[in-house]
């Protein structure tokens, strides 16, 4: 009983507490206007949102891998079928200028093969018609026919007189014994004598051959240009000295003395220390026309390079002589009759026939002289500046060709002729015309006098370059301009030289026939 009495109230208390809590919850619901169910739903919604966000984050982390894999599979399928469905794209033909294609090595090799085959046919035809005409002994016999009478060699030896006279004049000018005006007069007389003395000698002596006369005149022409440059540079050095003397309060400043001493220790010379036989004769034999007090020097002589250039010199000079004897001489002899009969169609055919071997000989001569010979001399003298030519074969204008095929002459004209005229107020067009006039004079000088006949073909050929240069630069561009330059080289000036050779043969043939 007691137990029941004790347990009853406890049970009721628990029920009352539960019911009290329920009533309290009911009161709270009425007070807040919310039910317990709504609160439970809110809590459940929060849990659902948290679960959603966590699951979405996991899906976001897993989705890139899935998408990449799917994209790869899709790309493989598309590429597999795209190659079957499409085989064209937007592009230009290789030979179109818009394609940007420039690897024509195979076509160049084809041109070389065709050139070799065509010239081999001409060479074989020449052998069948004329036989073997190459005779090196014939060339040597021209020099040994009269070994005690070499007027051309004597002319070259006499040229040393003008070299010594130039050095003596410069020494007198450096110490003030000669005035500038008197020195100018001496130089004018000396330079005019250099040009005229060999002319009178060649024209008066019948023993001078055309080859010997051309060689002697070439030596004197080079000496004329060298001594002109020697005179200009020394004059500029004196002007610099006088300008420094006017600006300084004393005769010599200490820094300038230190600089000259340092230069002398390094092997450099300064004016007037350059007025020596060694310095002048180094310049005379050096492969350049422009004088400097201190030329760039190579550190040593490369024997392998020197021997290769020597071998090329010997080989190509023999090749030149052989081509002239075997190819040029028979063609010139066979072209005499059309010129005598004034058959213009046959004349044009003969000139075109002679233009190809003449141009080939000119190319070989260019390589022999400007590359083999001048590099040989430069290596032997340790001359450092080896830019004797530039890429004239890529010339798109005639002016570019004349500026790049003979760099020593171009430098001389630019330094001692063209720029001084511009400083005196001459226009560029007049200066270029004067340069072409001077070049035309020397071309005529080197051709007409050895042949002892004056036809002015070389002079007119050079002057014709002026309107040709204007036409090419105005109307032709790129490859068309380059083709025009090559055509002018093949059928232009070489034809003028052939006209001289042909006239020489006609003249002597007529004299022989009359005799």
UniProtKB/TrEMBL annotation:
Record flagged with keyword Endoplasmic reticulum: yes
Biased composition (Low complexity): 34-45
Active site: 443
Pathway the protein takes part in: Lipid metabolism; glycerolipid metabolism
GO biological process, one term: triglyceride biosynthetic process
UniProt cross-references to InterPro entries, sorted A to Z: Diacylglycerol_acylTrfase1, MBOAT_fam, Oat_ACAT_DAG_ARE
Sequence segments annotated as region (Disordered): 1-45
Keywords: Acyltransferase, Endoplasmic reticulum, Membrane, Transferase, Transmembrane, Transmembrane helix
Membrane topology reported for the UniProt record: Multi-pass membrane protein
GO molecular function, one term: retinol O-fatty-acyltransferase activity
Any single GO CC term annotated in Swiss-Prot or TrEMBL for this entry: endoplasmic reticulum membrane
Subunit structure, as described in the record: Homodimer or homotetramer; both forms have similar enzymatic activities.
Homology family: Belongs to the membrane-bound acyltransferase family. Sterol o-acyltransferase subfamily.
Protein name in UniProt: O-acyltransferase
Source organism of this protein record: Synaphobranchus kaupii
Upper taxonomic lineage: Eukaryota, Metazoa, Chordata, Craniata, Vertebrata
């Amino acid at each position: 009983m007691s137990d029941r009495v004790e347990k009853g109230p406890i049970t009721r208390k628990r029920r009352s507490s539960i019911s009290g809590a329920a009533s309290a919850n009911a009161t709270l619901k009425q007070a807040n206007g919310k039910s317990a169910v709504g609160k439970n739903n809110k809590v459940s919604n929060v849990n659902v949102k948290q679960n959603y966000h966590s699951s979405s984050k996991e899906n976001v982390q897993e989705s890139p891998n899935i998408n990449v894999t799917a994209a790869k599979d899709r790309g493989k399928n598309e590429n597999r079928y795209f190659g079957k469905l499409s085989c064209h794209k937007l592009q230009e033909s290789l030979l179109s200028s818009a394609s940007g294609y420039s690897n024509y090595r195979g076509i160049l090799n084809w041109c070389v093969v065709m050139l070799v085959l065509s010239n081999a046919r001409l060479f074989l035809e020449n052998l069948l018609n004329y036989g073997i005409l190459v005779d090196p002994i014939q060339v040597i016999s021209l020099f040994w026919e009269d070994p005690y009478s070499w007027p051309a060699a004597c002319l070259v030896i006499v040229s040393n007189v003008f070299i010594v006279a130039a050095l003596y004049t410069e020494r007198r000018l450096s110490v003030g014994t000669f005035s500038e005006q008197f020195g100018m007069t001496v130089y004018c007389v000396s330079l005019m004598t250099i040009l005229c003395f060999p002319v009178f000698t060649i024209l008066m002596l019948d023993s001078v051959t055309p080859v010997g006369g051309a060689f002697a005149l070439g030596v004197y022409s080079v000496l004329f240009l060298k001594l002109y440059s020697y005179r200009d540079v020394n004059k500029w050095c004196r002007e610099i000295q006088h300008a420094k003397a006017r600006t300084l309060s004393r005769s010599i400043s200490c820094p300038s003395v230190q600089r000259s001493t340092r230069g002398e220790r390094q092997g450099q010379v300064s004016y007037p220390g350059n007025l020596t036989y060694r310095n002048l004769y180094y310049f005379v034999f050096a492969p350049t026309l422009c004088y400097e007090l201190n030329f760039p020097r190579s550190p040593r002589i490369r024997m392998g390079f020197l021997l290769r250039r020597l071998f090329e010199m010997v080989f190509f000079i023999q090749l030149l002589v052989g081509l002239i004897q075997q190819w040029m001489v028979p063609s010139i002899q066979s072209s005499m009759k059309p010129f005598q009969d004034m058959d213009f169609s046959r004349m044009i055919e003969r000139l075109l026939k002679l233009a190809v071997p003449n141009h080939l000989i000119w190319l070989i001569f260019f390589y022999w002289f400007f590359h083999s010979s001048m590099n040989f001399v430069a290596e032997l003298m340790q001359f450092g500046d080896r830019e004797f030519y530039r890429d004239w074969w890529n010339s798109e204008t005639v002016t570019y060709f004349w500026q790049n095929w003979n760099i020593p002459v171009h430098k001389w004209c630019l330094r001692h002729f063209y720029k001084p005229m511009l400083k005196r107020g001459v226009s560029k067009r007049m200066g270029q015309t004067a340069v072409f006039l001077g070049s035309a004079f020397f071309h005529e000088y080197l051709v007409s006098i050895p042949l002892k006949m004056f036809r002015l073909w070389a002079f007119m050929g050079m002057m014709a370059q002026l309107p040709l240069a204007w036409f090419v630069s105005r109307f032709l561009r790129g490859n068309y301009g380059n083709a025009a330059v090559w055509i002018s080289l093949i059928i232009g000036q070489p034809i003028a030289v052939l006209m001289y050779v042909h006239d020489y043969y006609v003249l002597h043939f007529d004299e022989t026939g009359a005799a």
